[in-house]
Amino acid sequence: MGMFKRFQLWKINKHRTEAFSDGVFAIIVTLLVLEIKVPPLNDHTSSQELLDALVGLSPKIISWVASFFFISVMWVQHHNLFRMSEKIDYGMVWLNDIFLLFICFMPFPTALMGEYPHNRPAVLLFGLDVTIASLVQVWMYYYVAKNYLLSHYDQKNVMRNVKRSFMLAPMLLIVATAVSFVSLVLPYIIYLIVPFFFLLPFDEEKENL
Amino acid sequence: MGMFKRFQLWKINKHRTEAFSDGVFAIIVTLLVLEIKVPPLNDHTSSQELLDALVGLSPKIISWVASFFFISVMWVQHHNLFRMSEKIDYGMVWLNDIFLLFICFMPFPTALMGEYPHNRPAVLLFGLDVTIASLVQVWMYYYVAKNYLLSHYDQKNVMRNVKRSFMLAPMLLIVATAVSFVSLVLPYIIYLIVPFFFLLPFDEEKENL
Amino acid sequence: MGMFKRFQLWKINKHRTEAFSDGVFAIIVTLLVLEIKVPPLNDHTSSQELLDALVGLSPKIISWVASFFFISVMWVQHHNLFRMSEKIDYGMVWLNDIFLLFICFMPFPTALMGEYPHNRPAVLLFGLDVTIASLVQVWMYYYVAKNYLLSHYDQKNVMRNVKRSFMLAPMLLIVATAVSFVSLVLPYIIYLIVPFFFLLPFDEEKENL
Amino acid sequence: MGMFKRFQLWKINKHRTEAFSDGVFAIIVTLLVLEIKVPPLNDHTSSQELLDALVGLSPKIISWVASFFFISVMWVQHHNLFRMSEKIDYGMVWLNDIFLLFICFMPFPTALMGEYPHNRPAVLLFGLDVTIASLVQVWMYYYVAKNYLLSHYDQKNVMRNVKRSFMLAPMLLIVATAVSFVSLVLPYIIYLIVPFFFLLPFDEEKENL
User: In which domain, by residue range, is D78 found?
Assistant: First the structure.
């Protein structure tokens, strides 16, 4: 933590960190679709065979949509986090890199879940990756609030909100794990619903930028 | 809609939303070419065999060019939409995400149409994706006009233009579906022609940025 | 051309056009490496077998390096072109899209040339793509000068330079085609040398931004 | 070197060079994960078989994490380098392109090392690529200091620091080569540890941007 103290001496170009992160978000969100491969057909002109093949691709399509919205939500929160920060430091850059590591990993669990939708570890690896990414993001909010990097926000209020609101994400994913023992369809439903809880930024203050 | 009301309380960094969207557009437009694979040759040095193989790739190349121009047109319109907006809110960010979902999906119908050029559902899925993306974009124009986010534009005029000009896109694609029952070459022609109707932004006002 | 006249009434956000183009350049330059695949080995721990396999990959690596520098040169010229322009219009955006179409196509001829280094059409398709991209770029320089979009540059001087300097690119590539009938090694050498002629921007005026 | 002299007459848009580089960094860091492929399973629903397959993927996952952090470190240093520069010139743009060439190559040695973790040349090619990229970056720091492109930094101090601090990178990688003759596990450990030495920018001056 003494090392983290030193990090704060270094000013970082917030714009480039955002640009790098936006690039990563944009690429991950688009790479995901590459896992939905053109299905092989015996009769290239058969409508019926193609439609059946498309139905067979539905687990991959659902995995893709769930991933897309999770990453979109992460982007919105990331955007919000950086908007709340007046400046960032080296500690923040490295937390951001750890966060991006788990975002970059997303195509793998997404593909795995799409390929083996009835295999528990495949379904839960997706939830695990999202949970860790969320927790690192909570840590980033906390770090920003703790280290007085906020702009026009009440530190105590933000820290209280961070603790309260964000425990939700891991909790819902723990639920996904629990219900997976009942049926492997349930985690899918949870993965599709959870993003809606994060449509709005967690901080309720109405400020005008 | 009450939820959408709340969204408007949140200011969004327009620049980052543009950067994220530009990243997605740039990646999709480049990923498309990955579907054009190097053809296997029996005789690696045979010019004739290679040229024949390249002719065989022509449906994929046409699919790729059609996709490229559709996405370019979408980018130009997206650019125009954000230029017309003075500011954006959370509702706009989520409409934008839904729009990008259908843009991100493009490589799949493009590859499918390139692989099975004589299969109706493959040819129409491309049109369907483009139509939905267009409609979400109309909705975004409408949303911007409706919610007083415009800069230096007459709200009524924009809303009238939105309703008039943009009904065209889905209509032309409905035509593509209809003519596909006559011949599967016709939708291709329509897909290649439609982008030209959108070379210019729909709004005719001459303003100086 | 009357249509092009109308294009000029529309102001375009130069920054977003640059951002979109930079995204495309960055992605193409990185996608190219994906064609260099990990070679299959019989003995996974054999150094000798791996080194032999790496030597076998050399045509792909040379193709990749040639592509990388061509696209870097294109980027430098693109950067220079936009720096010389005070503003851009719709005609410019569409010329830029046509230019990017041929840049986006690059991974295909690069892979083709890497796979079939002793097949003339494969080697020449690379040259053809680069030539067309160069010619569209000349057209863009010309368009900017012709339509009074220049900033702090003498129009006549720029137009004269455009005509003189840029005829070079296609000419060198015509030479590549000619020498390919002597030996297919010669075009490779030309592809690797040509970029060096464009290390510096063509316009010799010393202005301070 | 006379040619390099001329390069300095040309002003370059620093922002676009950063944007292009950020794009390349973001794409490389995300492309790396594509090498971690979904493993084939005999029994699609077997948890045990999937977990075993995931353990078998561990060399690829370790390669990926090592690559991710090396590229992150390179990005942080690149960011620092451009922050220290008041302006950049053509010589800098081309050094940057050579630097990016070796960054763009990264997915290949990463995949090679992940596929053949017990093959010395595969393990060392990774180290070689990182070393060359580091050395080009040292050259860039040196170039910036030498050519009076610095902003608010003492030239002599920076040049002394460049020489001292950065010899470390190649040295540690020479060690990786040496220890690879003892055991091929040791280079992995070094690859994972080295990035931590570069968490902080090398220049100790505390300036406020």
Answer: 2-38+46-198
